[in-house]
Amino acid sequence: MGQGKECVAMILAGGQGSRLYVLTTKVAKPAVPFGGKYRIIDFPLSNCTNSDIDTVGVLTQYRPQELNAYIGNGQPWDLDRENGGVHVLQPYMTGSTGEWYKGTANAIYQNMDFIEQYDPKYVVILGGDHIYRMDYSKMLDQHKSHNAAATIAVLEVEWEEASRFGIMSVDENDNIIEFAEKPKEPKSNLASMGIYIFTWEKLRDYLTRDEADPNSKNDFGGDIIPAMIAAGETVVAHRFDGYWKDVGTINSLWDANMDMLINPQLDAFGANWKIYTRNPTAPPHYISREAHVEHSIIPEGCEIYGRVENSVLFHSVTVEKDAVVRYSAVMPGAVIDEGAVVEYAIVAEGAHIHAGAHVGGDPQSVDPDKWGIAVIAADVNIGENAAVPAGKMIDSDIEAKEGK
Amino acid sequence: MKNLHGIIFGYVGDAGLGELGETRTAPSIPFGSRYRIIDFILSAMTNAGITDIGVVLEERYQSLLDHLGSGKTWDLVRKRGGLKLLPPFGMGHTHSSAAYLGHIDALDNIRTYLARIREDYIVLADAMLVSSFDLSKAYEYHLSTGADITCICAADDRFLQPRVRFTLDDTGRAVDVKKGAKNGEGYVGVGVYILSRELLLKLVDECVAHAQYSFTDGVLLARHDTLKIMGYVVHDFVARPDTTRLYYDTSMELFRREVRRDLFPADRPVLTKVLDEAPTYYSSDVNVSNCLVSDGCYIEGDLENCIIFRGVKIGKGAKLRGCILMQNAVVCEGAELTCVIADKDTEIAAGRMLTGHESYPIIIAKGSKV
Question: Is B75 helix (H, G, I), strand (E, B) or coil?
């Protein structure tokens, strides 16, 4: 039994991220590189640190090795603590039984013992696949002042997009009166951000009851929250107006990377809300005489001899002479050889685009219905002069073609 | 365990680095866009498998303490061994001032530390060395030749002041040792020596008894006839940037791809304190040519032949040529700088023009506003 904690955060990082296809064949979604030097999970972890939450459980399930190694003892996020700190929680066996997490609520239910050892008053539940900066302590203040059982962070979205989200209807005091998952005819445009604060005593009751219900899908949005509202508990909306992006799809992941170039709200240069990450050991980046760089993010370890425009590079990327990288995210250690072109693409870690190859295509160059972001999986070789059309996903080597 | 212990002399008696050295001891001076000079020898030691390292401090070492911290960066926080910082004891019987009379004097100051070292061999190293040579190979050489002392020498001494020059015979043994010889045969020493703990203790005691406080004079010059002193020549990039000119010239060498490959080998990384900066952003309409840039910068101006440290901001229309800008320097719109070394936290106001020359770069002292 540790010293008590007022608040414990639980990050749901078990998602397979199947809609990221080839990018998540080897790693869980939260471990996918993002924004030049981060991984997706750096955002909720850093938000916890910056919100003075020092006890965090990370619930993993799918391909956890890389995530486990990445989080390690939590030192990069200042979460290596004697009391509290970050803990990676795997599904486990109890006696002869044991099972994978059935749903988000079941994942927390299975780890109640972890939470109980800190005897917390409140529990923060976070997703592992969102890009945002948020002060959870403000949300907690609101939760306390409303004496709420649950507080849900919400974001105003465009009405036409509302049917893609979990939508909250609220009364004049922002009490949530109805929750609808992806409603066809939304009654409100307040979307759930998948960030919840619960009074632990209440949540523990509802989790236990939910577990006993064989018809439940054991999901926070689908089961726990509606049950609380139905029982007349105080469930409050916490309005957030900063940048928030779900990066669950190839397009949204690419969009969010491009947002890093322009988004002042996610101002990566704000000194007071740093996003911490396990830093690679790489020398400073080098921009050569022949190189041209504009409107791009370039981190350490890169060697740039070609053109980089409107792109987010990750550490230790090499762009050789006469190569062009446009509107793309190029992940750690990828190499773009002489004369190769990479546009509107995501190139994963360690991929090698050989000389003269062409990856991706301009939206204007093809039928808009067929256009998409080209994706090259980790460690894949695209042979000399080979072409990967817009929207194509490549997860194995492509052989070289004869010269043009 | 490697059976090798590192001792780093974290000070320089006679550095000619002007304002850069006023606020800190020279090995703590920022170098190469994100490092401090001491990072190179510290990393060379840890990359050679050394886990016990003592850093001898002399004066103006606050900046060095802050940089080294617990040693976590170099994985030197250990239950057994790890990083030990060795400030002056302040009760030296040889003299009363803070400055050591030489490395022997400094070693005598930490004699009790030396006597307790559990490894049989010790590598003594000047902290002012910019090189990523493979120290483990030099150690193997020392063991295989049965040398009393192995002196690391540079094949390429363009970026070193020739303090000690070794004339080596066919076997690599030093048959002559000269001090300060500008040109001539032989190899320039880089200030790194491998010897046994036993011999080191004996030499310290003997030298102190004879009032010989310099390692060069008391050991290398005085005893090369009686001791088996071997030279181990490294062909890697080696520099000792202890004057402003050498600091500037060495920095400009980093633009060469082969020098970077040599100095930052993938399997022996140079480690430095992490600052959690965001990656660097380049705006549209910038011209950046032949530059080395670290994380956390926001660049809207033109750069040519520049070394840019972490967290630097370059405003629109600013033009910089041959400049070195250290951490968090800010250059406002339209400023034009040529051959300027701006120390940490400096600010150059909009439209200012400053022009130095390769042979005489202008230094802007830490925290100044122009």
Answer: coil
